[in-house]
Specification:
This protein is an alpha/beta fold. It has helices at 54-61, 84-90, 111-122, 127-140, 157-169, 187-204, 215-221, 249-257, 294-298; strands at 6-19, 24-38, 43-47, 69-74, 77-78, 94-97, 175-179, 207-212, 224-229, 232-238, 304-307, 310-312. It has 9 helices and 12 strands. The strands form 2 sheets. It has an 8-stranded mixed beta sheet with strand order 6-7-8-3-9-10-12-11, with helices on both faces. Strands 2-1-4-5 form a 4-stranded antiparallel beta sheet, with helices on one face.
């Protein structure tokens, strides 16, 4: 049986934030025992509000940060205590496309140099082969070869994101971590980039970890959807289940907030903003939950399998 492309087991991450010139320190739990996996060819969308921990999860998956507890597995191999030789061999297989394509491209590099650099380091020292691959990938992402001689500031936001996608593909990856890949773009450009990402996934047999605050973006691209609230994975379900009943209360609020705004019978609920994260073992959604009960004050409910295609962390579902 093939190993998952990515597996995350019981990941915890805490930050200690200093305020008032270092006189006071706050403990912020960014991730609380998150576990998930991505099989070959799958797209897992991670959905949640700003500050919920989804970008921290992306950094840990990429190996840019180390979890306090838990393990990350690439292709069945744990990143914990991984030797440099094995890590170097695996590193090109997991790449990232970030929210701001301008900040992820060196402003001093022409696009040609930005594309060639990862290829020459990780694939082959042959510049001619690298340039040929760069031209091929630019064409695949809908850009002309003349872009090679331009600098990032000479391109539009949509063009820069296409370059970022091409650069990620230069090293023949199997998993792309897409952290808010369309949020910095105009709506019309967002649709084009999403369609492009779907095409590239099929063409190169890629798997995606898609991180976004936008339900429509996640619904369009993902096979599975994970909902995170204050660092806790409160629901994991197949996309086909999203239009059904019986979701976590937080997932329900997210779904209702994206219903047709022109439907006369629709009442979009007001979502209270909770500024302070939970500080005890109680349910993380307790303060905003419309169906809370006594158990919710005592412990944070575990993620429980409701069917083969749905897992929910709620005592009332």
């Amino acid at each position: 049986m093939n190993k998952p492309i990515l597996e995350v087991k019981n990941i915890w991450k805490t930050y200690h934030v200093k305020v008032l010139g270092g006189l006071k320190t706050y403990k912020v739990v960014a991730l609380r025992g998150v576990s998930l996996k991505i099989e070959k060819g799958e797209v897992l969308g991670i959905l949640g509000e700003s500050g919920c921990g989804k970008s921290t999860l992306g950094k840990i998956v990429l190996g840019l940060e180390t979890p306090d507890e838990g393990e990350v597995f690439w292709f069945g191999i744990s990143l914990k205590n991984l030797d440099r030789k094995t890590y170097k061999a695996l590193r090109p297989k997991v790449q990232a496309v970030l929210q701001d394509p301008y900040s992820s491209l060196n402003p001093r590099y022409k696009i040609k140099e930005a594309l060639l650099e990862p290829y020459l380091i990780n694939v082959s020292p042959d510049k001619k082969e690298g340039l040929s691959k760069a031209q091929e990938l630019l064409n695949q992402v809908g850009l002309d070869n003349s872009v090679l001689e331009k600098y990032p500031h000479e391109l539009s936001g949509g063009q820069r994101q296409r370059v970022a996608l091409a650069r990620a593909l230069m090293v023949n990856p199997e998993l792309l971590v897409l952290d808010e890949p369309t949020s910095a773009l105009d709506v019309t450009i967002q649709a084009q980039i999403l369609e492009l990402m779907k095409t590239l996934k099929e063409r190169y047999q890629l798997s995606y970890l898609l991180i976004s605050h936008s339900l429509p973006v996640v619904f369009y691209l993902a096979d599975w959807i994970g909902v995170i609230y204050f660092g806790t994975l409160v629901e994991l379900c197949h996309k086909s289940f999203l239009k059904r009943l019986n979701h976590h209360p937080y997932t329900e609020l997210l779904i209702q907030s994206y219903l047709d705004p022109f439907a006369s019978s629709q009442v979009i609920p007001e979502i209270e903003v909770e500024l302070n994260p939970p500080t005890s073992n109680r349910c993380v959604f307790l303060n905003r939950c419309p169906v809370k009960r006594k158990d919710c004050y005592k412990t944070n409910p575990p993620l429980v399998k409701k069917s083969d295609l749905q897992y929910i962390a709620c005592f009332n579902i």
